[in-house]
Design a protein that fits this description.
Elements (H helix, E strand, L loop, with lengths): L7 H10 L7 H13 L4 H15 L1 E2 L6 E2 L5 H4 L4 E8 L2 H9 L5 E5 L17 H7 L6 E4 L5 H14 L5 E4 L15 H9 L2 E2 L2
Parallel strand pairs: 3-4, 3-5, 5-6
Antiparallel strand pairs: 1-2, 6-7
The structure holds zinc ion (ZN).
Length: 201
């Protein structure tokens, strides 16, 4: 960004907006002009929504999904099948699976995938917390980590951890393109991948 072109306030706004994922300096400038040209109270509502979300959102103490109530609405829903736990990498994967409308179990959000190259070991993920959730009432754990190298490594690691606990452990089917992120997978393909899950051990 050419800092001589913009006023100091504008430069600051563009700078903050361009930190958002997928927003380059041109898009950031366009958004900044939109915001400052709004006549109504949109800028105030936008900043309030951002601050409010950051203040109210937390991780569910049971499944570690992002929520503004703890336990989250999924964990609190007695109409759901609490004997089936679907393990995903990120909170956004929960949204992707919920969109299929086919899954009625509960979730466990790991907070990432194993990646020794990036310094992400088992301690960095909510793996101990998952193992603690495996009570005799839990009948199945579905490993729905992504289908890239890191997701597969994580699934194999979890399968080995869960094996001595005697719980049925399944892996989503490979109908998805290799390396596919759940969030970019269409609902029908994701629903098929869940339906076609197989025992991993
Ligand atoms: Zn929860």
């Amino acid at each position: 960004m050419d800092s001589t072109v913009y006023s100091e306030s504008m430069q600051k706004l563009i700078g903050e907006l361009s930190r958002l994922p997928g927003i380059g300096s041109k898009s950031a400038a366009r958004l900044a002009y939109f915001i400052v040209n709004c006549d109504d109270d949109y800028p105030a509502r936008l900043s309030e929504a951002i601050t409010g979300a950051k203040m109210n959102l937390r991780h569910c103490s049971v499944c570690h999904n992002i929520t503004d109530q703890d336990p989250c609405p999924i964990c609190s829903d007695m109409g759901r099948d609490h004997s089936t736990i679907c393990v995903v990498e990120q909170a956004k994967d929960v949204i992707a699976i919920e969109r299929t409308r086919g899954y009625r179990g509960v979730y466990h959000v790991l907070g990432g995938a194993l990646s020794p190259m990036d310094g992400v070991g088992p301690e960095e993920l909510k793996i101990t917390e998952l193992v603690k959730r495996i009570t005799p009432e839990v009948r199945e754990v579905i490993l729905a980590t992504s289908l890239g190298v890191e997701g597969e490594t994580t699934a194999m690691y979890l399968a080995r951890m869960l094996s001595p606990l005697g719980v049925r452990t399944t892996r989503i089917a490979r109908g998805l393109p290799s390396g596919a992120d759940l969030e970019y997978t269409d609902e029908a393909t994701l629903a098929n991948a869940l339906d076609g899950r197989r025992e991993i051990i």
